[in-house]
Amino acid sequence: MEYVGMLTQIRRNNTKSFLLLVMFPVIILVMVWVFIAIINWLAGSGYDQYGNTLHDLDISAVNATFVNVLPWVVGGVALWFIIAYYFNVQMINGAVNAHPITRKENPRIYNIVENLCIACNMPMPKVCVVDDPQLNAFASGINDKTYTVTLTQGIIDLLNDEELAGVIGHELTHIRNRDTRLLITSIVFVGIVSTVMSIVLQILYNHFWFGTASNSDDDDNGNSSGIGFVVVLVIGLVCCFIAYIFTLLTRFAISRKREYMADAGGAELCGNPLALASALRKISANPGLDNVKRPDVAQLFICQPDEMQHGLLNFMDSLFSTHPPTEKRIAILQQF
After folding, report:
1. Rounded Cα–Cα distance for residues 184 and 291 (Å)
2. Catalytic residue at 171?
């Protein structure tokens, strides 16, 4: 595997973070334009003298409408991003039910984290614990004030000190390489698109299940309006789904090498690659936090939970998973 130094990895992650900040809004705006264009194309339909259906796309009208909605779209996305970006730690801790610990509450874990930070000359991050008997760990945060290492109670109880040092070293390397900033940027934008898509799906579901009976007594104009409403929603859903696929592909562009880099950094910090390999083997047997039901947050975990909630969005997230197979990570560590 190609050797990549720490500074090179940080520079690459900074570049990718910038590209994500540009690409995700572009994808959203393109899909908004496509949505307006399709509606305009359908609204401009008619018939020729032979009864054939004709469609006419008025580009100038599409662009004019797009310019009018642009400030609302940009403002909404920017507001969402600012809130999610700067309150990501609270949101993630709320999703996994994590709580901070102090040296007095858990001197064993706190001292391991502190010693590793001294060894690599980095500021001490916050340390959080999830009261879950399953096994997992992750790093989060965007700067020195918010960087956090989170462990489940299960991993604390099962792993010995050397194995825990390897896992914590892995997470500290994610922070040092600024992987967490990159991933949180990805989580925010994927969350925007998936949330809009979920809302449109829920509206369609409610319309078909609860709107049919009330529309049965309407006149032809009422039925036509109902059909038009459904068509608009379906078009919006398709555009959202396409945008979601593109955001996942963009996220997938984040190289899986970041996990191998974090493994290498963790092995170097703890001074025992086999201890981290042993830890990964134990974690992969029971990777926890299944109750989180958040595939976007799960990409932060050291191992993907084995029983994530089933569903279309979860399937798509797993299909474009940014985690390499744990068995391959263990095999590489055993070669050190």
Report:
1. 20
2. yes
